[in-house]
Amino acid sequence: MNLSKLILLFHLFLLVSLPSVVMARWIEDTVVMPSEATGPVAFSHYTHLEVLGKNCPTCHNAIFNIEPTKNPAFTMADMEKGKSCGACHNGTKAFAVKDSKGCSNCHPTRDIFFENDGGTVLFSHKVHTAAFSCGECHPAIFIPIQGKKAAVTMTQMEKGTSCGACHDGGAAFTVKENCEVCHQM
Ligand code: HEC
Ligand code: HEC
Ligand code: HEC
Ligand code: HEC
Ligand code: HEC
Ligand code: HEC
Asked: What one-character-per-residue DSSP string does the chain give?
């Protein structure tokens, strides 16, 4: 066998074997899905390929088109019906999208600032999620959609809406006093 034949064979070998071996390493690990409503959701290829096997067609293009622009924006209601992440995250193959304790697996939380006449209020997810699960506030008390803050007055809060659902002197300190605990004045 001469040298040029060897080189040819080597290239054939590369063509056949590389895609499956190397592709899984060369793809972007984290894909960020820009959800306007909640803030970005990160999806990790590596974690998924590890549990599911390095099998791209499991998701492409049956569940997700490989070109992000070709995927419509799905709602959580679509997912509960088995679309998008919900094809597996249904409580059988993987943790369920509708489990209110599981939202933060996919949706990172952040500090929320309310600007108003009483002075800025910081709502800390971190402090509250130490004691409450997502579903105790979302969506009954607060719709978890960015920029959809319904302006609520202190009078409404005193009657039990918004923060007042808990800050009533029972479950937590009351909104009728303690102004400076919430408001930076
Ligand atoms: C568990 C499901 C799943 C598997 C398996 C999977 N992907 Fe993906 N892939 C996704 C999701 C989700 C997206 C993001 C789609 C979106 O943004 O709409 C994505 C996006 C992509 C993109 C586009 C990235 C970008 O930012 O343009 C490429 C390329 C890609 N995947 C390649 C692969 C390859 C190659 C494999 C196999 C080694 C693979 N994927 C396996 C779920 C998967
Ligand atoms: C397995 C991951 C996953 C879990 C768990 C999950 N979500 Fe989502 N969610 C997503 C992704 C991804 C999007 C963006 C989808 C898109 O744009 O196609 C999204 C979008 C949303 C949206 C905007 C679309 C809509 O339905 O109005 C809301 C609100 C939301 N999620 C709330 C929640 C809440 C509340 C929970 C817990 C009960 C939850 N999500 C659990 C992945 C998840
Ligand atoms: C083909 C099936 C499948 C699809 C589609 C899928 N997942 Fe998963 N996912 C799994 C399995 C299996 C696990 C591991 C088992 C578990 O944690 O319940 C997992 C675990 C996870 C985890 C925990 C591990 C980690 O990476 O931190 C997150 C977060 C996650 N998935 C997010 C998503 C999001 C967001 C989507 C949609 C964009 C999605 N998954 C779509 C099957 C899938
Ligand atoms: C004690 C109540 C409470 C709990 C518990 C809670 N949240 Fe929130 N959340 C809020 C408030 C208040 C807002 C701001 C509401 C508004 O904008 O009107 C908010 C807003 C959000 C938003 C909107 C996006 C943004 O950053 O502006 C997302 C996403 C969200 N929460 C996710 C979660 C997840 C995931 C959990 C569980 C890990 C959780 N929340 C638990 C009260 C809560
Ligand atoms: C589901 C019930 C619940 C809701 C809704 C809720 N809180 Fe709380 N919050 C608590 C509890 C319980 C504590 C801790 C007990 C206490 O200090 O009385 C707390 C503590 C706090 C603290 C003190 C935290 C610290 O740093 O020590 C602040 C500030 C606060 N909440 C602000 C808010 C604001 C602002 C809202 C509305 C946007 C809100 N909370 C909605 C239950 C709630
Ligand atoms: C549990 C936290 C909390 C406490 C305690 C609290 N506030 Fe507020 N307050 C808020 C939040 C959050 C908003 C903004 C609500 C919105 O935009 O939806 C607000 C809004 C306001 C506003 C503008 C809306 C309106 O009602 O005119 C004023 C003024 C105000 N607060 C004054 C006070 C005073 C005075 C006290 C003490 C008697 C107080 N607040 C106690 C959280 C609190």
From this structure: --HHHHHHHHHHHHHHHHHHHHHHHHS-SEEEE--TTT--EEEEHHHHHHHH-S-GGGTTTTTS-SSGGGSPPPPHHHHHTT-GGGGTTTTTSS--TT-TTTHHHHS----EEE--TT--EEE-HHHHHTT--GGGTTTTTS---TT------HHHHHTTSGGGGT-SSSSS--TTS-HHHHB--
